[in-house]
Design a protein that fits this description.
Length: about 475
C-alpha cells in the first residue's frame, strides 16, 4: 500500500470515528485500521491526557515517570469491547475488524475527552462566570456529562457493530466497566507541583513525597519524642490535654487547620506540653508524627497515662473528608493509611480509661459520629449533620468554614465550647449561603453529657482567674 493510500485509510478511520461521536452510523468500506493506527491513537490519547493534567497545575511542575504506567485497565477493557463488538455472526456476516472498531472507540474517547477535559480544567482554575459560588462543582458536572456522552456514543456504536444479542450485551457491559474503571481507577497524574526553592514561600507547592530510610527513622524518633514529651498532670489543677489529627495529606487546608487549632489551644487553654499534633502532609513528612489510626490510639493512651482522669479533660480535633457511613478519610501516598471510624475512637477512649473528653469532628456527614461517641463525660461537636456535607475543604480553602468560625473566631473570644459552637452556627450558615452551597445547610451538631459541664466550668474558672 502506498503512503498516499495509507493516509487516505487513516483519514477514513478518523472521519468515521468522528461520525460515531454524534451517534451517526460509520460507513465501513471493508478497509482495516491496522496496528499502527491503533497505537497512534493510544499514544495521542496518553499525550493529550498528560497535557491536560499539566494544565491543572499552576506554576512549575515535575514529571512523575511511574505514573505513565498507570490507567491501562481502561485501554484493556476498550480492546475487549472492540473484540466483542466485531465477532463473526453465525450467518456468516462480518463486521469491521477489531482494530478498526477499537480505533473508532479511541477516536470517540479523544474527540469527547479533550474538550471536556479542557472545560474541566478551565472551570476548576477560573470558575464559572455566571455563578462563581458553584465553581467547585461545575468541573465535576462537566466531567460527568462527558463520561455519560462517551458511554452512550460507544454503546450505540457497539450495538450497531455487534449483530447478535449476547455479543451486543457483552460489549455494552464491558463499555460500562470501561467507564467505571476511568472513575474508580483513574491514571495517576504524570505531573507534580515543583517544590519551592529554599527560602521561597509556597508550602502549597511541595514536590512528590519521598519515603526514604532517613524519613522513616526520623519519623520514629519524632513520634517517641512527642509521646515522651507530654507533661504529667499537676495535682489539683484542671488541665486540658489535646490531640489534633489531620490524616488527609492531599488537601493543604487540613494541615493549616490543625496548626491553627493547636495555636488557639495553646493561647487560650494552656496546652503547652500537653498537645500532640498528628498530621499527614508532604512538608512535615519526617518532622511531625503521622496521622494514622495506630498513632491516634497511642496518643490517646499516652494522654490518659499523663492526665488525672478524675479531673482533667482530653480534647481531640479531627479534620478531613468524611463519608456518610462515618469514615474519616486518610491518605498519605506512598503510605497506605486506613480511615478512622467513630467506633474506633470510642473504643480507644474507653480502653485508655479517659473519663472526660471533648471530641470535635470537622468533616462532611460528621453528625453520624455522635451516636457512636455518646457516653457520660463526653462533649461531641461536628461540622455537619449526618446527611449533609460541610464546606471549605477544597484546595483553594484557607480553613474549613467550621474550623474558621468555631476556633479561629469564637474560641478566641470565649473558652466555652458550647458557646463557641452556638455562636458559630449563624456565621457558618450565612457564609454557606453566600458561597452558594446547594445541597442544604451543613447544620453543625453538638451533644453534651451533663457530666462534663462541671469539669469544663472548672477549667474555664482556672483559665479566667487573674
Amino acid at each position: 500500500m502506498t503512503g498516499l493510500a495509507r493516509a487516505a485509510g487513516v483519514g477514513q478511520v478518523l472521519r468515521e470515528g468522528l461520525r460515531t461521536v454524534v451517534f451517526m452510523n460509520p460507513r465501513w468500506g471493508g478497509g482495516a485500521a491496522g496496528p499502527g493506527v491503533v497505537l497512534g491513537l493510544v499514544a495521542a490519547g496518553v499525550l493529550l491526557g498528560a497535557g491536560l493534567a499539566r494544565l491543572q497545575i499552576d506554576g512549575p511542575a515535575d514529571p512523575v515517570y511511574w505514573a505513565w504506567g498507570t490507567g491501562w485497565l481502561s485501554t484493556v477493557l476498550l480492546v475487549l469491547a472492540g473484540w466483542l463488538a466485531t465477532r463473526r455472526g453465525r450467518d456468516g456476516t462480518t463486521t469491521p475488524d477489531a482494530a478498526t472498531a477499537l480505533s473508532w472507540f479511541l477516536v470517540q474517547s479523544i474527540a469527547i475527552g479533550v474538550p471536556v477535559g479542557v472545560g474541566h480544567v478551565a472551570l476548576g482554575r477560573f470558575g464559572f462566570p455566571p455563578a462563581p459560588a458553584h465553581a467547585d462543582k461545575m468541573p465535576w458536572v462537566v466531567l460527568g456529562a462527558g463520561l455519560l456522552w462517551q458511554f452512550v456514543a460507544a454503546s450505540v456504536l457497539a450495538a450497531r457493530l455487534a449483530p447478535r444479542g449476547v455479543s451486543r450485551l457483552a460489549a455494552i457491559g464491558v463499555l460500562l466497566a470501561y467507564g467505571a474503571a476511568g472513575v474508580w481507577f483513574p491514571p495517576s497524574s504524570p505531573w507534580y507541583p515543583s517544590a519551592p526553592e529554599p527560602g521561597e514561600a509556597g508550602d502549597d507547592l511541595p514536590g512528590p513525597p519521598k519515603l526514604t530510610q532517613e524519613v522513616m527513622e526520623s519519623q520514629s524518633r519524632h513520634l517517641v519524642a512527642a509521646l515522651d514529651g507530654v507533661l504529667p498532670q499537676r495535682p489539683g489543677v484542671t488541665e486540658l490535654y489535646a490531640i489534633t489529627f489531620a490524616p488527609y495529606a492531599e488537601e493543604d487546608v487540613f494541615s493549616r487547620e490543625v496548626k491553627m487549632v493547636g495555636g488557639v489551644l495553646r493561647e487560650r487553654f494552656d496546652t503547652d506540653g500537653r498537645l500532640l499534633n498528628l498530621q499527614n502532609h508532604r512538608t512535615t513528612m519526617g518532622d511531625v508524627p503521622w496521622a494514622t489510626p495506630l498513632n491516634l490510639q497511642r496518643a490517646i493512651g499516652r494522654m490518659a497515662e499523663r492526665m488525672d482522669r478524675d479531673e482533667d479533660i482530653l480534647f481531640i480535633h479531627l479534620t478531613s473528608h468524611g463519608a456518610r457511613e462515618g469514615h474519616l478519610a486518610a491518605r498519605f501516598f506512598p503510605l497506605s493509611v486506613d480511615d478512622v471510624t467513630p467506633q474506633q475512637v470510642r473504643q480507644w477512649l474507653d480502653d485508655a480509661g479517659v473519663r472526660y473528653s471533648v471530641i470535635s469532628i470537622s468533616a462532611c456527614f460528621s453528625g453520624s459520629w455522635i451516636p457512636q461517641l455518646q457516653a457520660p463525660g463526653t462533649l461531641v461537636m461536628t461540622a455537619a449533620d449526618a446527611t449533609h456535607t460541610s464546606y471549605g475543604c477544597g484546595r483553594k480553602s484557607e480553613l474549613t468554614f467550621f474550623g474558621r468560625a468555631v476556633y479561629d473566631e469564637q474560641l478566641r473570644q470565649t473558652r466555652s465550647f458550647e458557646a463557641a459552637h452556638a455562636a458559630a452556627l449563624p456565621v457558618i450558615d450565612r457564609r454557606e449561603k453566600e458561597a452558594g452551597k446547594t445541597d442544604g445547610p451543613s447544620s453543625p451538631q453538638i451533644w453534651v453529657s451533663p457530666d462534663i459541664r462541671p469539669r469544663l466550668d472548672a477549667l474555664v474558672r482556672r483559665l479566667d482567674a487573674p
